[in-house]
Design a protein that fits this description.
The protein is mostly helical. The chain contains eight helices and no strands. It starts with a helix and ends with a helix. Residues 1-16 have low confidence and may be disordered.
Amino acid sequence: MKDSKILSGTNNVKSETTSARNKFTDYIGYALYAFGCLGVEIMLIMIESSIYGASSTSWSNLQHIAHWCFTCILWGIAGHLLIKQLPRTSQLKLSWVNIFASILLVCISIYITSMMWTGFKPAMEFVQLGAIRFIFQYIYYAFECLLILLIIAHGQYAVETFLCRNVIIPFGGIILAATWGTVHFLTQNGTTGIFTVLQSLIYGTVFLILKRNYKLSYIAILFMFMI
């Protein structure tokens, strides 16, 4: 009887471990799906460039706007499906420390962006793009931020389900840095890559400080990304 109880207990531990690993693969898969959706834009640019017979740098305003609209539709559909896979969280009350820390990190992120752009990013993009393209560009940013949040959230839950406990380390931000951040080293340059990795870690930290509140985290990431 004792042996059977011991074996039964061992089986329960094994089943819980297997369940945690299954959830880990699910969540890490969702995080990678979100990252893959960002990469779909590259394929879309290649298709559009072939249709237009010109590289994206030579597109007209209408062609740029059409590209952003197509991309937003694809990202919106993917984002909607991936949001459904997020676990429901109780809306924990934020302390003044949480609020102050999140605002401080948002300000630090905006300062870093301003240093990177050598000016106020929205103002510089408005001058560069013009009013119409600026509006559509920032709508596009809003959908990109949604996928960024989904990479962070699913990545964080992936590690936490594997460890079977909540952690204070921003693993979601680390996974974002390892995916979205690393790509910027390959597609742009080292400086932009370092900047994106640093921002990824800040985004992931803010997500934890805001106690995994999806809506508030999205708004914070939106401010940090756009400004």
